[in-house]
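Researcher: Good morning. I'm working through a list of sequences from a screen, and I'd like to move beyond sequence-only analysis. For each chain I'm collecting a predicted structure so we can compare shapes side by side. This is the next one on the list. No need for commentary yet; just the structure.
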Amino acid sequence: MTLPNIVLMTCHDLGQHLSCYGHETVVSPNLDRLAAEGVRVAASFCTAPQCSPSRAALHTGRHAHSVGVLGLVHSPFNWQLQPASAHFARQVKDGLSYHTALFGAQHVTRPALQSALGFAHLSPEAAAPALGEALRAYLSALDNQQPFYVEVDFTEPHRPYDWGGAAPEDSRGVQLPPYIPGVADSVSEFAALQGAIRQLDTGVGIVLAALDEYGLRDNTFVVFVTDHGLAMPRAKCTLYDPGIETALLLRWPAGGLTGDRVLTPLISHVDLVPTLLEALGQPVPAGAFHGHSFWPLLQDAPYEANDAIFAEKTYHTAYEPMRAVRTATHKLIVNFETGSSYDVPDDVRNGLIYPHVIARATGHRRPVELYDLERDPLEQDNLAGRPEVAELEAPLLQRLHRWMEDTSDPLLDGPPPSPFYAATMALLAGRE
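Model: Good morning. Structure tokens for this chain:
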């Protein structure tokens, strides 16, 4: 078979906040066109509601706790992808002789170590339109004798929303999600978010236009995916659906991925790498990945759908350990330490909306949370511990515990020490 080119576009903090996912006030014509020309995954979920752990799982097909990324990789947190954990770029570069290129910030390891990820060409972080133009220049110089894997990691719509010169966008008004208070500050902040998404969409449009310009559209497998949910209260850094739902769009005309299709089965980030490998005609060794390929689903072939997906958080700005199992109808979250009702990362605390939700966020969480997603989609009514749900709660707890065992979750052995702790202990020992 002729190997396709692959363009994997990622972005920060978007969730599913696009017009093609039903948010009609968002101006995202290029991403909407990508969805209309390809496949949109309706029930796509990340494995962690913060950047580095989510991306580590996305690019390796293994949950973050098994590849060394239990928290953010930048200073002062300093978690790092384990050297033995093969990034997808390394797999296709070494195994299939792809030319590999990275545009933007990868955020799964320190910049000084990113050569180990497998990228032959590096282009620095920039605003989305500039990043798109850098990719256009790269494509113009290719000799087309070698398939390429290109990863474009857009920063938008990470806070601050005016990064790169983005201006607020409210030409279609502002539609607030139901978990956000309906106040003027919310409207203002979501207008700023919509502006950052519009700037992201412009960059995506430049990438797609460049593929057309150089005759690469038909045999290029395009994937657009975000790392986790919106940087909003009760979304980012939580295991509620607004924290773990993600946009996932795919297009590959030569591979049959066309036609404004919508997939409804549960899909996890850890499913993407095995899917891409199977699409390339490569073996997917048993046990190599925590996810499983949904390539048969994309080909309308027999497919065994996920009956559950799993998500985790261990560290973000602090030690915040929690794990979750989500089925099509229910969500069970286990909190391994006490804390406020839900975690709010620093970038969200500095926004306009947070003061309006402090009273809700500063209560005390319970060890177990159980939600009926059909009756209670906003996950407000915690059913855990009620006698009438005991026959549902116990199997979900067992399922979650079995997943932690199967994936060698270090949390089973107690609180895993952080790199910050290790560095501080080394400093202390050096004083003796």
